[in-house]
Amino acid sequence: MGAEAVYGTRAGEIAVLLRAVGDAAVVLSYGESRTFAALGLNRFGSIGSHRLDWRGAEVIRRSPEFDGGELRRLLGDLAGPDELAVVFWGDLAVPSLALEAGLLAAHADAVLDHGPECWVHLVDTGVLIEFQDGEGFTAGRVPR
After folding, report:
1. What pTM value is reported for the model?
2. Cα(81)–Cα(63) distance, rounded to whole angstroms?
3. Nearest to residue 80, comparing CAs of 101, 51, 64?
């Protein structure tokens, strides 16, 4: 089964988050998700299948913390509350979301509850935040 057929088939895993944010979040189609990935996430190399290769990228901050409080701090420091944020999870079956960074920060714990890794692309500022459970966060500029 191809990636497009799998994409979004487990949207129920983020149902609690979607109910909490309501219409303020947009569940992205496969095509929309891949378009945003091309603008950010896919501009990085990878180490294995779920880790970005930060060599050569401008790293803004690394944090050994791996909880919602740290994601809230990063979003508060690196994005305006109205900035567009796109969330990708490590499992394509869970669809990507687009929402304002301030709303994402308010629900940071719920975002991190949905898997051992995720990535947040702050579209306006060109920053990507990587989360690896048990290891923390890395935030850096998206390569051009």
Report:
1. 0.94
2. 21
3. 101
